[in-house]
Design goal:
- The protein is of the alpha/beta class.
- The protein has nine helices and 13 strands.
- A hairpin with a 2-residue loop joins strand 12 and strand 13.
- The longest helix has 15 residues.
- The chain is globular.
């Protein structure tokens, strides 16, 4: 069977309601007046990775549960507008949603509604097997019920990536993702020793590459046993929201990997895309395109 899809993205579809607040942490008060409005927007981690991959020219298919509700309609509309293939499994509990409090410096605090998933949720095996058989690679979100899909994806022979987000290196929920994927992304924010955690992932699992993003401090890349510090890239315009920067980094890194670039080059792609994402207002779902990415990378690394 031909591999007609470059990347199958599992999970992470949902809606964020964006609230711009005067500062974070937000001091206690009985009420706040939000002059910029309170706006729902389709786009959680899986949506943003799928959008980033598609914007870079990769054939992308997104699989997740969606409810028959206004939030689900927003997610479906985003995929139609951006030309991203979507297979939506009906979810009676409703579409995943969150509230993002965004500070003036672009930092955010996310509040996730965990009531919109059920412990017995499972992707239909026939659907998952068919999509995996036609995909080169699968990027697996850590949302329910993606962990149960990992054995089937591995059996199908696709390479795997995942993003552990703010894993502390100890929470057992993340371990099946961390130790099954070929490429592992995570945030360094909750790690007292990023290198130790990254090497632990490699030693316990099958990862060829581990990347720990560190915001304005750049990222750490572990590949072929060597740890490299990846400097941050200066955003082209002022930072307005950090939401989605890690997803953009992952999408651009995977674009590089799937087009045959070495890990250091992939990490530079990720750094440029992540910096771009920080300049996109939180009420928009947008991603850097291939031509713009390659042009900015060329400026970061001038030809000899």
């Amino acid at each position: 069977m031909s591999r007609d899809t470059d990347v199958l993205v599992l999970g992470g579809a949902g809606v964020d309601t964006i609230v711009h607040v005067p500062e974070l942490p937000l001091p206690y008060a009985d009420s706040y007046m939000i002059d910029s409005g309170i706006r729902p927007r389709a786009g959680q981690t899986g949506d943003f990775v799928a959008l980033g991959l598609s914007s870079l020219g990769l054939r992308t298919h997104h699989l997740d549960f969606l409810g028959d509700d206004p939030e689900g309609d927003l997610v479906r509309a985003l995929h139609r507008e951006k030309g991203i293939a979507l297979t939506a499994i009906p979810q009676p509990a409703g579409t995943k949603r969150a509230v993002n409090l965004v500070g003036p410096d672009g930092r955010r605090l996310s509040l996730y509604d965990t009531s919109r998933a059920r412990p017995d949720d499972r992707f239909p095996e026939d659907t998952l097997r068919t999509l995996a058989a036609t995909s080169r690679h699968a990027h697996v979100s850590i949302t329910q019920p993606c962990a149960d899909a990992l054995p089937l994806l591995r059996e199908a022979g696709v390479t795997l990536s995942t993003d552990l987000h703010n894993w502390d290196g100890r929470n057992p929920y993340h371990e099946s993702f961390a130790f099954t994927a070929d490429v592992v992304f995570l945030s360094a924010a909750a790690l007292p020793d990023p290198e130790a955690t990254m090497r632990h992932i490699v030693e316990r699992g099958r990862a060829e590459v581990v990347v720990a993003t560190a915001g304005a401090e750049g990222a750490y890349l572990l590949a072929d046993g060597e740890l490299t510090r990846i400097p941050a890239v200066r955003p082209p315009t002022p930072v307005v929201d950090s939401n989605g920067a890690g997803d953009a980094f992952a999408a651009a890194f995977l674009y590089g990997r799937l087009t045959g670039e070495p890990p250091l080059r992939c990490a530079l792609y990720g750094a440029v895309a992540g910096a771009h994402a920080c300049t996109v207002p939180s009420t928009r779902a947008d991603a850097i395109g291939r031509e713009e990415l390659l042009a900015r990378v060329a400026r970061e690394v001038p030809a000899p």
